[in-house]
Records
---
Amino acid sequence: MTTNRTRHLRVSRAAAREAFALAGGRCSFPGCPTPRTLDNGLPLLEIAYIASPVPGGPRYLNITSSRDAADQSDNIIVLCPTHHALVDSNWEAYPVKILRQMREGHLERVNQALDGPRTATSRLTEALEVWERERCNTSEEYWQKFFAERPEALAIPLEGKAYSLLSKCYVGGKTVTNAGGNVLDFLALNSGNCALLEIKTPSARLLTNGAYRTNAFAPSRELSGSCVQVLTYRDSLIRHFTSLAVSTPDLRAVSPPCTVLIGDLESEKMSGNERHSFELFRSALKDVRVLTYDELFTGVRMVLDAIS
Ligand SMILES: [Zn+2]
């Protein structure tokens, strides 16, 4: 802990003016109410260093010369006096990384407030950019969150019908001791039916290595397992429909379609025989549609091309 507020080096007047403008005249600390104002009506705000340019100062980083650090406009954050004192006196709780995130988050909120709500087109464009950047991300939670935040990217597996998307849904199956219970990744509701969606990762393999028999390749454990999983959830949803509909009166279930989103055909680079086996397997599935991530995002790109 230190109370050193690094008064030795000052930010240039131009850099400060620019920072106040970019911050929309508001403190960057999340949830900070409208700042107190001075007698002239201007908000009472201060410039804080993200990494102090002075040895011994809060979050001092010896990455550059002191003069450069003092002038670096991306090394400063706009805060009210209360939050400036808080982050500088508790610099261990507010390291450089946290302050950078705070600054970025605030600038994003200011931009959104200026631009108004983002259009579906800009959201899909952003979803495509994230896909290109993150397609190797192996975290199922990451992709769950990705689609929860961008439900419009799932319009293709949901056949473009209007729906409301519920994330991590309980679809029945608990015992009387409240144990067990089936939790589906996404349940899409529309006025006439629902649809079930299980999300795996793009890095999940679609086939097992090596031929099962000459020219015949078996689906991976992840692929066959996720198909059984979504069918189990559908079975549970239908069997417990009466009790589930009590808490969700909008729920309808008319042979609800099931989709598994898994794998990346472009990255898996199958041979001709492997691809043939994969297509034979998924086309023979009566009640589950298997969609790969690259297919989904190719669809998103086609939609964007069509409307641009
Ligand atoms: Zn504040």
---
Amino acid sequence: MQQVQPPIPVEYLEAEEKDLVARIQARQKEFGRQLLILGHHYQQEAVFQCADMVGDSLKLARQAAAAKEARYIVFCGVHFMAEAADILTDAGQAVFLPHLQAGCPMADMATVDQVAQAWQELAGVCPQDQVVPVTYVNSSAAIKAFVGERGGSVCTSSNAERVLAWALERGDKIFFFPDEHLGRNSAKALGLRDEEIVLWQRGRPLGGNSPEELQRARVLLWNGYCEVHMEFSAEQIARWRRQEPAIQVIIHPESNQEAVAAADQYGSTEAIIAAIRNSRPGSVWAVGTEVNLVKRLQQQHPDKTIHLLAPTPCCCKTMALVTPASLLWLLDNLAQGRLVNQIKVAPEIAQGARLALDRMLEI
Ligand code: SF4
């Protein structure tokens, strides 16, 4: 991430949360429909309550694009989400991130230079026109553009299997960025065998594989991961089953394959929310995803027992940089005509990234 977060004055950092929220609401009234605050499911509650729209990253970006009267779109999420919103919105809409250090560590594990280098190395051992690149939406705009310009697609955690199936019809191999685990879980769900899936370890020649291993493989997985979802394990699930025999376990597919295989269900944030909402009163759940979403589910469904899957809360530390203080600081600046923390994707990158996003929507 190139932009540096300007210091947030101490008067914001020391203010009471309820005062900050009241001042945010006053700004929202003042801006009216010109301002749209988007809140990702993993945001802390005080920020989430201020959002005009809530959801997962792509849903929010698409909703922002549809809200044409909104001139200022404030994405309470992480950097790649704000980039996706900027790509999909039009020139009259500007997108802002309340804290510039709110990046996604997993997205940052695949830089476009690393990916371009890997792509070139792979071309030395496999016919390039037979490799279809696919990137998880949790990736930089530059990676999306790289993929889009090479005939590939974006995927989300809810459509990854469908996109992988599409890619395998178009070519011999998939190069999947940046999340090893979503890629592996989706490939396994499509029936691919372990020996058809190889890990590309960034920084190692040929990703640490022999030319023969790469030639044999159907799916190459970049070795990125989400620190939050890596906290969940099959052992935790076994422990819950011993403690609560009636428990149902649902987990996000960024978790490792052993944990996903041991769970009753796996799915995106929206799928997790729907599964709990549609379950019968009195049901007991262990949920493997970010703590703010699980706590919200506990509050929204007092008729169900909902446990955190891991013994300690798993929190996205960069998402947590977006606070009522940073949100208010941003809105105060906008009110004074200072467009701080704007996320702008260069037009040539946005064009390539759109190709990859549009391809996903067609699939
Ligand atoms: S929860 Fe994981 S994937 Fe999501 S923003 Fe945080 S680090 Fe990235």
